[in-house]
Amino acid sequence: VQLQASGGGLVQAGDSLRLSCAASGRTFSNYPVGWFRRAAGKDLEFVAFISASEDITDYVDSAVKGRFTITRDNAKNTVYLQMNSLQPEDTAVYYCNTAGHWGQGTQVTVSS
Question: Any residues with CB less than 8 A from the CB of 41 and at least 6 apart, and which?
């Protein structure tokens, strides 16, 4: 599986971004997908998860759950992370993961 993450950028606090993780190769729809992030100088952190059948989602904490939404479109082999009300602490490189494979990451920078 090859993963391509995109959609990051430089935004102001309170803005929104939608990240995309496009997959190619192995049948994408059979696998759950996770989003992770790594802020500068910090460890990799789990952000959100969606099951293969889309019936289960999970988020790192309630603060993220109230602002971020993970969805998937298996017909497009793509998973999305809608991020609203972004805060400076959301600044990080965001990665998607599925079937043991990682995308290259997309930078999200939120200015105050």
Answer: none
Task: Let me know how many helices (H) and strands (E) the chain has, helices first.
Answer: 1, 11
- Which one, of 87, 106, 107, lies nearest residue 12 by Cα? 87
Q: β-strands 101-102, 68-73: how paired?
A: unpaired
Question: Closest Cα partner for 36 from 93, 101, 80, 83?
Answer: 93
Other Cβ atoms within 10 Å of 25 Cβ, number? 11
Report the alpha-carbon distance of residue 66 to residue 57 in Å, rounded: 13
Checking if the pLDDT of 103 tops 90, the result is no
Q: Name the nearest CA neighbour of 73 among 42, 96, 50, 90.
A: 50
Tokens of residue 45, six digits: 């952190």
pLDDT band at 29; cut points 50, 70, 90: confident
Instruction: Please choose, from the candidates 97, 93, 98, 101, the residue with its C-alpha nearest in 3D space to the C-alpha of residue 110.
Output: 93
